[in-house]
Amino acid sequence: MICTTIRNGKECPFMTARGCSYNGGICHVIVEQCEGCKRGEEFSSGWYCSACPDPSLKWKNGNCNLATHVSAAVAGKKAKINPLKASKRGSR
Q1: Taking the model in full, what pTM does it have?
Q2: Residues 35, 27: contact at Cβ < 8 Å?
């Protein structure tokens, strides 16, 4: 349904005929870690995330999985090689 509380005119999965069904009845403002994310939208009452009604919960246990400005660092750890097996492979 279309939001009638904070994000007026935007599609919202939490809107019902009786109003916003999200915890507290309103969306929460973005947190400091969300600065620079492309999902942030400015409305008359502040900046809100277009994908999540409470961004602080997404950042609670590390990085937000919806953040567009954070890239996951791939750990390129080399595997330990047995020197005996490596010498046998080299002799072939």
Answers
A1: 0.65
A2: no
Q: How many whole angstroms separate alpha carbon 58 and alpha carbon 35? A: 14
| Calpha distance 52→57 (Å, rounded) | 9
User: Can you tell me the distance from the alpha carbon of 46 to that of 49, in angstroms, rounded to the nearest whole number?
Assistant: 10
Q: Is the CB of residue 43 less than 8 Å from the CB of residue 6? A: yes
Helix, coil or strand: residue 92: coil
* Residue owning tokens 């005119």: 9
DSSP 91: T
pLDDT single digits (tens) 59-84: 888 888 888 888 876 666 778 888 88
Q: Which of 16, 5, 69, 15 is nearest to 43 (CA)?
A: 5
